[in-house]
Amino acid sequence: MDYLALFMEYLQVELGLSDNTRLSYQRDLRIFCKALSIKEEQLAGVQRPQIIGYITKLKLQGRAAATIARKLAAIKAFYRFMITENYLQADPAEAVEAGTKGIHLPKVLSESEVKALLEAPDVTTAEGLRDRTMLEMLYATGMRVSELVTVKTGSVNLTMRYVIAFGKGSKERIVPLGSVAVEFLEKYLQTARGTFLTEEEADPETLFLGLGGQGLTRQRVWEIIKQYGRQAGISKAISPHVLRHSFATHLLDNGADLRSVQEMLGHADISTTQIYTHLTNKRLRLVYEKAHPRK
Fold first, then answer.
1. 168 a catalytic residue
2. Is 193 marked active-site?
3. Which pLDDT tens digits describe the chain residue by residue (295 residues)?
4. Is 244 part of the annotated catalytic residue set?
5. Among the options 193, 241, 245, 250, which is catalytic?
6. Active-site residue 25, yes or no?
7. Residue 34: enclosing H or E segment and its boundaries?
8. Is 152 annotated as catalytic?
9. Which of 71, 76, 130, 244 is catalytic?
C-alpha cells in the first residue's frame, strides 16, 4: 500500500497544510527511507530504534537543531497518521525527541471570520443549506472532517442537542450541539437531505450526502470549505482543521475549562489540548499591552 501518498492526501484534506509544507514532509520522509535503506512501502515496518538511530546520526553530523526537529516532525506526523487510520497499532515515533524546539501554534479564524464563513453558503438551495449545516456543525462541535463525513442520521439527537462522534481508534464520544447548529440540522433534514436520496444507490444513513446520494469525501468537504473561504474574503489558509482549532480557541477565550475542551475534541492526552492555551495566553498579552496604563 502506498502509505506516503495516503499521508499526503491526509495532510491536505485533514490538516489543510500548504503545498510547500506537504512537499517538505514528503521530501523528509523520502530522505528518511533512503537513510534506512528501505522502500516507501516499508515505512509501516520501521521500529523505534531505527528512528532514534536516524536522529542520533543527524546530531553527530552536526545538523542544525531546527533541521532535526523538522525532520522528526515529519516522521512523527506520518506515524500519527498511521495510528489514526488504523494502519498501525503502536507508534514507533512516540516519545522520540529531537531536543529543544519551538511550539507550533495552530492557525485559527477570528470570530468575525468564522461568522463570514458560516454565512457564505446560499441556504435557498439544497447544496447551500447542506454546506451551511456542515459548517455550523464543524464549528459547533470541533469534529474532525473524518468524523463529520461518517456521522449517521441516527447519531444526531436534536431533542437532547448532541451528536455522537467516532474519533481516533473508533472511540465514541458525545459532543453537545448549539441551538444554531440544531436549527440548521432540522432544516437540512426536513427540506434538503431528501433531494440527495433520489438515486437507487443512495446512502440512507449517512448524514451529509452529495450527488448520487453518497456520503461526501474528506477531499470534497475540504474543497467546499476552501470555496466558501474565498467567497467570504478570508485571506488565511482555511481547512476543516482550522475550524476545529477555532472551536477550541474560542471556547477557551470565552471561559471554558481545559478538561471540557479536551473531552469535546476527543484528545486522549490533555497535553495535546494545552497547545490552545498558548494561543489564549498570547491574546491576553496583546490585550494587556494595549489596555494597561503601565504595560
1. yes
2. no
3. 789 999 999 998 888 888 888 999 999 999 999 999 999 989 999 998 899 889 888 888 888 888 888 899 899 999 999 988 889 888 888 777 765 444 456 788 999 999 999 999 999 999 999 999 999 999 999 999 999 999 999 999 999 999 999 876 667 899 999 999 999 999 999 999 999 988 777 888 999 999 889 999 999 999 999 999 999 999 988 999 999 999 999 998 888 888 888 889 888 777 678 777 766 665 666 655 666 566 5
4. yes
5. 241
6. no
7. helix 19-36
8. no
9. 244
